[in-house]
Amino acid sequence: MDAARKYKMGEKASWLVKLHWTQYVSLDPFGAYLLACSHGWTTQAKDAAQSLLGGTIQEIEVSYSPSMEDMSTQHYHRLLTYHARCSTAIFSAGSATTTWLDVKARKMMLCRHSVYYDMDNVAGWVAPAITRAVVILLPRPSPRTIKEAIASAVLVTLIQETKCGSCSFPSAYATFGDSIARKVQQLIDAVRGSLYQFGTVLTVYS
Question: 42 and 118: one domain?
């Protein structure tokens, strides 16, 4: 980018980078975040910051790029603040079934063994699975986290140990994971909205 600007090709280079931004973020989200901040690309910075939620805050703390030497530390601080606040948002949401599962998901998880067949009688595995999902999400507060193989294996094992014979599985688990992921996205979107001001300057609110 700097070389391109030197030879008066900055706008074209910026366009090419933005065109392939999704691929760049997937390959190097930390480098993408720093690049976006250095050029005042607010939307791209937000996207890269969200991608970094798939890792732990400790992984961000040990990340390094030569471009950090020429940048204000406020961009780095904002990234850490964003990650921490997303984890806090998930923790603060609690573990209530109605918080994490939408109506469609709860319908898929009603306990057929219950005498009272209503929306309050979700299968017995649901509550402990939500609690475990929240624990899994806290260090890596991303919708992707709940869909990863390790998280899925942990949750499936827990569900298998606690479900009754009438529980719908694995279709109910797929719905469970999708509903949890949607809620995580809602929570981090709310943090993203409060953390970043519109325009080219990114603002952290205390």
Answer: no
Give the C-alpha separation, 69 to 80, whole Å.
17
CA distance 152 to 135: 13
User: Which DSSP helix (H) or strand (E) runs through 4?
Assistant: helix 2-6
Asked if 164 and 111 touch (Cβ cutoff 8 Å), the reply is yes
**Same domain membership, residue 96 and residue 70:** no
Q: What is the pTM of this model?
A: 0.80
For 70, the token pair is 């020429």
Q: Does residue 26 fall inside a structural domain?
A: yes
DSSP code of 7? T
Q: What's the pLDDT tens digit per position in 146-187?
A: 989 889 888 888 877 877 666 656 677 888 999 999 999 999
Quick: pLDDT tens for 96-148.
999 999 888 888 777 665 444 444 577 788 889 999 999 999 999 999 999 89
3-state secondary structure 106-165: HHHCECCCCCCCCCCCECCCHHHHHHHHHHHHCCCCCHHHHHCHHHHHHHHHHHHHHCCC
Domain limits for position 98:
92-188
